[in-house]
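ok posting inputs for the pyridoxal-5'-phosphate job
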Amino acid sequence: MDSADQFRFTHLPHPAPVSVAQRTELLANPGFGRVFTDHMAVVRYKEGQGWHNPTIEARAPIALDPAAAVLHYAQEIFEGMKAYRAADGGVVMFRPDANARRFRQSAERMAMAEVPEALFLDAVRELVRADRDWIPSGESASLYLRPFMIASEAFLGVKPSSEYLFIVIASPVGAYFSGGAVSVWVSEEYTRAAPGGTGAAKCGGNYAASLLAQREAKRQNCDQVLFLDAAEHRWIEEMGGMNVFFVMDDGTLVTPPLGGTILPGITRDTLLTLARDRGLTVREERYGIDQCYADAASGRLVEAFACGTAAVVTPIGRFRGHRGEIVIGAGNGADPVTGDLREALIGIQRGQRPDPHGWVQRID
Ligand SMILES: Cc1ncc(COP(=O)(O)O)c(C=O)c1O
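and the output
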């Protein structure tokens, strides 16, 4: 089923791609997620026929029947990953196989057709090759890739769809945060995911449910929202689009464990390995919000950071919530352990440092 031949992509080049001059202008300051490349990868699925017609085609609006299941029952999943311009001018990706695996696991949780990992990787690579001129160079610039899958069967009965569209689009991006440390609002009223729910799947519904809390965070002048567990409203889980780490004064790193309610972040997993490589003690264990406030007051908690594909490693300067505000370290993001891990991660991703775990894949 997933042999290379079966998934040979048909290329239908864009008849009127963006001009070189316009692309150069767009790449100079792309922001995050507003500029898109010329092409997209599209693969269709139908029960009885399987995955078929893989194409790289002009990026364009997609036609959906108004009864398409995704529009009613939110059967949708996605991924977020990046292609980088390496120091030698080549193109690299970081752990794309981990995204392929998580996409398959998300599909399973949402009762969707599973995209074979080989097909997922081919779609991403073919799109990066087709739009390689869109990969920006520069410190925090990259080509953000957004693979996603929607239920496309036109049927109003509540059941898993029998038809799907798997699409990959690409967006040249700069830094997600503008620099320095971020402030985080601790959401006490809204939770993101409950035990037995879909917290570990990267499905759009999780993000829809987080938006009101994110808006509340903005109203409180915070950059991001931190969610607590749904059962006791006590244990720190994760942020709206990132995992979270804490650094104690003895150099120990603490991060909430994976238990089905948080996203198993690929950056999180990578940093756990990099920290262990450095001889740091790492604890994946529950950390209560009360303990966090007490540790900040006593000086035991010295650093905190958010991590994810978009955020990379971003220092957290303060937490604010109904129990008041705590400042972490100096509050300005000049945090040594966070900075060291960030440098190590970026160095490997950009091909500037050795890659002992074989995480980096060349595309060309
Ligand atoms: C809710 C959530 N948690 C964590 C992450 C970090 O995951 P990753 O490191 O795989 O990007 C993301 C970003 O994708 C996310 O949306």
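notes: The chain has a mean pLDDT of 95. The pocket of pyridoxal-5'-phosphate is lined by residues 80, 238, 241-243, 263, 265-268, 308-309 (CB under 6 Å).
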